[in-house]
Amino acid sequence: MAQITLKNLAHSYLPNPSQEDDWALKEIDHVWRDGEAYALLGPSGCGKSTLLNIISGLLIPSQGSILFNGNDVTEAPTAQRNIAQVFQFPVVYDTMTVRENLAFPLKNRGLDAGIIKERVERIGDMIGMTDQLDRKARGLAADAKQKISLGRGMVREDVNALLFDEPLTVIDPHMKWQLRTQLKELHRQFGHTMIYVTHDQTEALTFADRVVVMHDGRVVQIGTPDELFERPEHTFVGYFIGSPGMNFLECSVEGETATVDGNRIALGSDYGRPSGRIQLGVRPEHVKLSKGEGLPATIDRVEDVGRHRIVRARVLGAPLNIIAGEGEAIATDGQTVVFEPGRVNIYSDDWRVEPHGSSVGRRAA
Ligand SMILES: Nc1ncnc2c1ncn2[C@@H]1O[C@H](COP(=O)(O)OP(=O)(O)OP(=O)(O)O)[C@@H](O)[C@H]1O
């Protein structure tokens, strides 16, 4: 297992990048801790594959270096990096049995037959294919083949890192949950450094110890699922994580009070006088329906999603989502909303402002 260091790393696919937009991966300086499970999360085109390909050795970065346990591997080919990779679509040998496919990376390294048998059967059990170990891979459905790919990725204990690139795309929804749980279990048992690329927040938040959120070629936050939810460092994280995402209102801030269109909102912390374009961010879960207290709200519609309701409203001309419990009354007239003071975040030019006297949260890159 390895600690992976990214040093002033950046990449452009252009020969002479001259402006910020020319960089598919903007500069990142970060240490990925040995033995942690990370998810690289972001929408299509944000630079996830570019970063993963630099780590795996498929791409040499235009700037900076990459170190495995302190050794510079920036120019080293994939084969020399001792990593296991699982891709979006299955890569299996059709003429081999499931057992032979799983054993392949171990045989290649000349491991003892007894160890191979034991390890293959354990992984076969984890991917739910014990009964199919001795059948040929040919003819198996795509999701079964992808389970073999996952198993083959996980079969070696001595890899520096395990890299997964959207590995559950072809897997059935109910099996996805099961495999994610098994991956997590495997991580608990063996403590591999794992990097899992996905654009699906549920996948990222359930799999990873830490989620690396990317937006427009930049790492905007690296944090635990709880940190991403409670203290998004960038408005993009607030918007991207959560369902629905964070609400934002343009405002001005002085000390512990935000003002929106002349309406004062208590923030619960002292923010001084931040400059730039100021926004207040509040999660739908932290907006409370009230009658008379707080800001006036117009209800557009209510969506019942089972465990709770999503109230689509307008507050001071801006759209605002509220999560309301099953029993909560929603007024058609005179409805107001209150923001839980300690759960509000303030943003200046899209970056979170740290309240005075607090030491939590920091920019990731
Ligand atoms: N080989 C390439 N040549 C030129 N530009 C590229 C190349 N590969 C990626 N890009 C560009 O770099 C940016 C980042 O792409 P990248 O594939 O890393 O994003 P991604 O987050 O992995 O997206 P997806 O989930 O769609 O794969 C995009 O603007 C993309 O068009």
Automatic annotation (TrEMBL):
The membrane spanning regions, by residue number, are: none
Report one GO cellular component. ATP-binding cassette (ABC) transporter complex, substrate-binding subunit-containing
Under the heading InterPro entries, the entry gives: AAA+_ATPase (IPR003593), ABC_transporter-like_ATP-bd (IPR003439), ABC_transpr_FbpC (IPR015853), ABC_transpr_MalK/UgpC-like (IPR047641), Mo/tungstate-bd_C_term_dom (IPR008995), NA-bd_OB-fold (IPR012340), OB_MalK-like (IPR040582), P-loop_NTPase (IPR027417)
Q: Which domain of life does this protein belong to?
A: Bacteria
Locate the ABC transporter domain: which residues?
4-241
The record gives the membrane topology as: Peripheral membrane protein
Molecular function per GO: ABC-type ferric iron transporter activity; ATP binding; ATP hydrolysis activity
Q: Which UniProt keywords apply?
A: ATP-binding, Cell membrane, Membrane, Nucleotide-binding, Transport
Localization, UniProt:
Cell inner membrane
Stated family: Belongs to the ABC transporter superfamily.
Q: Which PANTHER family match?
A: ABC TRANSPORTER ATP-BINDING PROTEIN, MALTODEXTRIN IMPORT ATP-BINDING PROTEIN MSMX
**Identification of the protein by name:** ABC sugar (Glycerol) transporter, ATPase subunit
Which organism encodes this protein? Fulvimarina pelagi HTCC2506
